[in-house]
Write a structure and sequence with these properties.
alpha/beta; 7 helices; Rossmann fold; eight-stranded mixed sheet; globular; 233 residues; single chain
């Protein structure tokens, strides 16, 4: 595996190539070592991964705790972030490590929400994976910044989707995951949603002992990789 800096974020590349590509959208805290490591795991599985900086157009807000992070998400422009994801998709598809092969998108938390949006609003995607991505918007948000929820966007889905959620998520009610599952079932594209009992938000994040659930994390990973191979190979 090789790594390199990219104008849009960080790249993790498999030894052999060209390979299918995955644009990885991090959580609200932005580009981090955690997602570099997860991107490295995907590179070892045969994917070229671009961890994209979601704040290239918007800038990152000044927040230091979960409450501040959630308030920042409420004010963040979805259209601008989705444009940034599209730029990452286009750049990765054109990169010699991918060279026009299929590209998917993978996101976590806020990034999972934008992975769902990308699956409905971006071009050039062949698969999307959302780990505990928010699906509903709160009432009263600025419609210019939050024109529609991820759940509302599913009617325009363009590619297969896998969704991964924790049944004990304090941010995303389990009913939201089930409503996403029902909306995806009405789409012509293959889709699957997995909800893990005993797991909460960010259960794949091994830097957070309070959240990390190793058994659920490993099982979810064993579902993610075959899904990406099936739709990006």
């Amino acid at each position: 595996m090789a790594t390199e800096e990219h104008a849009y974020g960080h790249l993790a590349l498999p030894e052999a190539g060209p390979s299918p590509g995955v644009v990885l959208i991090p959580d609200v805290w932005g580009v981090s070592d955690l997602y570099d490591r997860l991107g490295g795991r995907l590179a070892e599985a045969g994917f070229a991964v671009l961890q994209v900086d979601p704040y290239r157009r918007t800038g990152r807000g000044e927040f230091s705790d979960p409450a501040g992070a959630m308030e920042f998400i409420r004010q963040l422009s979805d259209p601008l972030v989705i444009e940034t994801v599209q730029e990452g998709v286009d750049a990765l598809a054109a990169h010699p490590a991918v060279a026009g092969r299929k590209v998917g998108v993978l996101g976590f938390c806020m990034g999972g929400m934008y992975a769902l949006h990308a699956a409905c609003g971006c071009t050039g995607l062949s698969a999307a994976a959302a780990f505990y991505g928010m699906v509903r918007n709160e009432a009263g948000l600025d419609p210019a910044k939050k024109p529609r929820s991820a759940l509302d966007a599913i009617s325009e889905l363009t590619c297969p989707v896998i969704g991964v959620y924790g049944a004990e998520d304090a941010i995303i009610p389990v009913q939201d995951a089930r409503d996403l599952e029902a909306a995806l079932a009405a789409s012509p594209h293959p889709a699957e949603v997995h909800v893990y009992p005993g797991a909460g938000h960010a259960f794949l994040n091994d830097t957070r002992p309070d959240a990390y659930r190793p058994e659920a994390a490993e099982d979810a990973w064993t579902k993610l990789v075959p899904f990406l191979r099936a739709h990006l190979s």
